[in-house]
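Hi support team,

I submitted a single chain yesterday and got back a structure, but I'm not sure I'm reading the token output correctly. Could someone confirm the output below corresponds to the sequence I sent? I've pasted both exactly as they appear in my results page.

Thanks,
R.
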Amino acid sequence: MTDIYYIRKGAILKKSLTACGLALTVLLAGCASVGNETLRAESESTVTQKITEGKTTKAQVRAMFGSPVKTSFTDGGLEIWNFEFTNVSADAISYVPIVNLFGASASGKKKELVVLFDQNGTVKRYSMSESNVTQKTGLFNN
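Hi R., thanks for writing in. Yes, this is the structure output for that exact sequence:
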């Protein structure tokens, strides 16, 4: 009888661990971050404290924020660096079985830092923005 008790106890423990693992997977799968992680904690005011127009150099910007996600040039040859970070979480409706096939969504924040450099490699202008983002999927959200 004790062998049966331990077999049942082991089966219950296995099921409990499997359920906990599945729940943890679902919770972790509901969040996603894309882009430059250094922008996660930044805001317009913190960037203002770090960048000074006419003083801060390319090397200093790279040291603070890493490599830009995109580099472009103006018609006059000035260099522009773009840094982006997006963090979204699945909305509650996304966790409802069957219903999420017809319409699920995720929402969060997008941060973007744009830096324009002059001919000497010094910051001429910059802009930090933060906006709400929503992504919808499913049959009824196309």
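A quick pointer for reading it: The CA atoms of residues 12 and 55 lie 65 Å apart. Let us know if anything else looks off.

Best,
Support desk
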